[in-house]
Amino acid sequence: MIIEKALLFIIILRLLSGSIELSAAMLMIKFNDLEKAFYINSLLALVGPIVLIVTTGIGLTGLSEKISLTRMVCLFAGVLLILYSLKSN
Fold first, then answer.
1. Which of 45-50's residues contact partners 24+ apart within 8 Å by CB, and which partners?
2. First to last CA, the chain
3. pLDDT digits (tens, 9 = 90+) for 27-54
């Protein structure tokens, strides 16, 4: 079975992201301090959106032959709108 390069990169990034999340949880348990847990959680807030944008970009690049440019722009705009809606009040 052959895995496409784009799919492999997405899988690796998601595994890395999950490992970071688990490591952060373990650090929170180790430090047992609300302030440090809040700081670690704030750092995680940066990781999630970055991974989402990068994996979406890789996926769109891998699908560039199968999807029209208009659809790609709409998909990427949708991801940006999701991120914007999370940041707005």
1. 47/17, 47/20, 47/21, 48/17, 49/83, 49/86
2. 46
3. 999 999 999 999 999 999 889 889 988 9
- Token readout for 2 is 């052959």
Q: What pTM did the predictor assign?
A: 0.78
For the chain, the domains span 5-87
Q: What angle do CA 47, 50, 53 make, to 5 degrees?
A: 150
CA dihedral 19, 2, 74, 43 (to 10 degrees): 10
In the structure encoding, which two tokens stand for residue 57, read together? 């970009």
pLDDT band at 12 (very low <50, low <70, confident <90, very high): very high
